[in-house]
Please model this.
Amino acid sequence: MEIAVAAFICSVLALLSRRYLIPSIPLYIVAGLILGKSGFGIFEVDEVVEFITKVGILFLLFYIGLHINFEKLSKNVFISGIFDLVTNFSLAFIVSISLGFSYYESFILASAIYISSSAIVLHSLIEFRKLIFKEAETIVWLMVFEDIILVLILIFSSAEVNQLPFFLAKISAFTLAIYLLYKVSHNFKPLFSREDEVPLLISFSIATASITFSEILGIPEGFVAIMLGAALSGIREIERFVTPFKDVFIVLFFFFFGASVEVKAVNLTAAIVFILIAVMGKIISGILIGISSHKSVRSGLEIGFDTIARGEFSIFLAYAYGSGEMMSTIALVVLVTSIFGAFMAKHSYEIISKLERSVKLITSQR
Model:
């Protein structure tokens, strides 16, 4: 019943967002927040809802994987990921220490602040038709890089550093297997050219198989989903079968994500500081990545604006390893950056253009 009601509410919000030309993601999150733990408490996240929202993320990531071209990969992916990690983690860690948090608390806070929301960032690329932009592939691989770093953070947080070499070996072996599958994927095209239910069932089973592969191999579900999509990126027909699942499940994810956020006693000073750090960190790292990978500050600003939103992973880290104060503080950071990030991603072109005109005007007056 909850899922049906949530779907109806989100459909109304989707109509309003199209009618008034505003981003839909913040509407879903705010609606969930109002009706969930921090509001009226009407909606709760049980095991069924949790599974459905997980499937939503996996379909989104699988869909994104379908747009990845293995032939374009380069060392820039690794370099971009390092810029993103060092800039955002370092800023948040230093600020956390200066605010009086312990080294362990600062590590958790910095990790939560560093990681963008793959679900929000990647969905924004689709909703705002940015997959054709040259920066889109860099952003996609940044999300993959962060997904892998998240697992490393969990290993360090759990004092299981001895697992690190084995984990990296599994990641490498799985990536190689996916690349080999990509090379022969053209042989499967007839399966997705049929007019019956077979392509639909196969598409659904492959995307959701990410959960099984992740459990068996012990590697991130998000990484598996994106790589499975990338393996089949040469089969363009599969996209039309995946899109309906992605559109429905990911909307439910955003709504119930908002419903699961609980804002209690917040350290308002820390929250404001972390929000500023979260925004500025991504813009700074975006500029560095833009200059390094695309030789363009404009591209850097686009990358920075598109990756501001924090979300599901930040909440997970705060709730799994943080204190009550940390959880509430991060929840507020996630709420503000998810909404602000969605608006910045939608209006990035206009904002960047205005910034460029302002710079030219100031330069010409000197």
